[in-house]
Specification:
- The protein has 4 helices and 7 strands, in the order H-E-E-E-E-H-E-E-H-H-E.
- With 137 residues, it is of the alpha+beta class.
- It has a 7-stranded antiparallel sheet, with helices on both faces.
- A hairpin with a 2-residue loop joins strand 3 and strand 4.
- The radius of gyration is 15 Å and the shape is globular.
Amino acid sequence: MELHPDEARELFATARVARLATVGSDGAPHIVPICFALAGGTVYSAVDGKPKRTPALARLRNIDSEPRVALLADHYDEDWARLWWVRLDGKARLVSGTREREQALRALTERYAQYRDCAPQGAVIAVEPVRWVGWRA
């Protein structure tokens, strides 16, 4: 069953993780799992302290050159009557303002206990929704 955009947004907010899809300057797709929080209609994610190969992350470069992104959250269950997925198509940007960064980190910290012990110090990504689509069994 196709979801109404409001229902898709509500279901998306229940997911613990999503996948962020960006496009590189060479046109190649790039997708990574992210932690996220919805605050005031915007989806926020932060580069946290988990080990990374480099601080110059592809997702940040990609957003800088092509802000159109997709976020995908889904639920799989052996009982296929419980399956669902939601995709957010949106425009991403790196948060530069201190007030917005604090708001985003507060929302992420409220959602993930791990961030209470080790707040993200890296870049904060904001995704402004353009379209919510989804499906559930």
